[in-house]
Amino acid sequence: MGEIKMIFWYLNGKPLKNFNINTIIEGKTVILFGADEGRNKPLLEEIGKANLTCIFDNDKKKWNKDYMGIPIVKPFDGGKEEVILSGIYDWKSIMKQSHKMGYLDVYFFLTEEVEERMGNYVAEFSPEIYDNSIRGNCDYKYIHVIPDEKFFLPVTEYIEYGFHMKEHFFVVYMNCGNNKDRYDVWKVYKRLSKQFHNIYLLHEECFHLNLFDWDENQGELDKLLENADKIIFHGEFFVPTIHGYFRNKTDLIRKKGIFLPWAGRVGRNPNTNVFIEDVLQYARVITYTYPIEKESVTKNFPLTKKAVWMRNGISYARLTQFVPRTEKAVKNVLIAHSCHDYTKAMDTLKYLSKTEKNYYIYCITSYGPKELKEQIKHYGEAHFGSYFIAVDFYMDYTQYVQFLSQMDAAIFGMETLSGRDTLELLFWLGAKVYLKPDSEASKNMRYVGYKVNDYYSANRETLEELFYNPDEPWNHSIAMKQFDSAKKVQQWKELYEYDLDTNGNH
Question: What are the Cα distances from residue 411, in Å, to 67, 293, 422, 432, 442?
Fold first, then answer.
């Protein structure tokens, strides 16, 4: 049996190099901790199930069952002759539990897939980010709780443009999701860590990225929250550690919490709903960009907060250099900004399959469930041939704007307000935008002032009608106002200076 093809092996939390697990497990009792098919299957395929006596799992619902013929049991006490293997990312709790039961050697692993998802940023930045930046200063006025997303960039850009970065602290929680989709955020993490010492990176899953010790730093974070004026939650995503920590801080959330919902997701994801129900519904202020957004959010999730502030158009949009569209013999149409279910990309493809197939159809497939991506690719290629192009690579912001500038039209079938910044960029760049008239996206865009075309007319129009866009100057002017940096700074200023003792709607 050959060496296990894993990028990272850890023994009791410490990294191992040039390591062959087969020499370790030979002649020993081997126990797998965690009946998780996705994470532990690669190991079973490599070492074979014959080497394993059983699988430990803390979920009693799995006890007395089996996985690949290996019994799943309640963890029991052992000794130094047994070896624990695990691909579960919550390695600290597994290690503590195993050591308490008498198991001295606990080996953790990451697959090549996980490492690939993390990219090369880890090795480059983690040593410099790890500088105990949370210690020594507990006087930050604003604590931002935000997922490891591209939206981190505009938040920091507007702070540096119009405010004082030393007043802001960032708790960035990471779950190893869109890890190729890093854009430049890791470079910003590195710079903020070195220059301002105001960033805390919490890695939920990737234990090899344990930049900060959560157990040791919770007390420091407690101090930060106690001394801060406001705690700002960006979006409603969560990881279990963040969820568990803040659900015990509801008194603070009631006093200082500001919740900025990402309306396209609220109420539609059971996982985020849990975080909203346990934590975010208690926020002192729940913000909405437009009245229609408030309506859609409260409809999908019954938020209990009475004090609601209309945040006057605040968004995470960034404006880069304008890129003019070039004239082409064959036009380009964008049908979705991702392959998530809520974008209805497949529905739009089926809808457009009834039209003339002499314009290029682009669909961004770098985001979304793998199975749905493959379905969309297969359908698009089968019905549109060379006129269908799946964009399955990640772009930084400048590249993304360059790409959008080449779209002559966008036909989006989503019902939600997802991809708002993409829509506003398309308006700014001169594309003709088609949305479902009764969708949240259409209602909100029209509320801002954009002139939107009817999604259901797209397959009835001639090619000339489809791409004729007399509203281009008007929509461009509206977008310019939305992207104005001074206006954005003023909108964020209203958020930072908002009187939390104010009651009622604003």
Answer: 45, 21, 12, 8, 12
Q: Rounded to an integer, what distance in angstroms lies between the CA atom of residue 451 and that of residue 428?
A: 12
> Which parts of 213-355 fold into alpha helices (H)?
214-227, 240-246, 250-256, 270-278, 291-300, 345-352
pLDDT tens, residue by residue, 412-459: 999 887 788 899 999 999 999 999 999 988 998 998 899 999 999 998
CB 221 within 8 A of CB 200: yes
* pTM for this entry: 0.71
How many CA atoms lie less than 13 Å away from 389 in the CB half-sphere? Answer: 14
Cα separation, 260 vs 308, whole angstroms: 11
Domains of the chain: 6-116 (3.40.50), 117-310 (3.40.50), 332-487 (3.40.50.2000)
* CA–CA distance, 384 with 358 (Å, rounded to integer): 9
Q: What pLDDT, in 10s, does the model give residues 193-235?
A: 888 888 887 765 544 444 445 666 778 888 899 999 999 999 8
Q: How many CA atoms lie within 13 A of 245 on its CB side?
A: 19
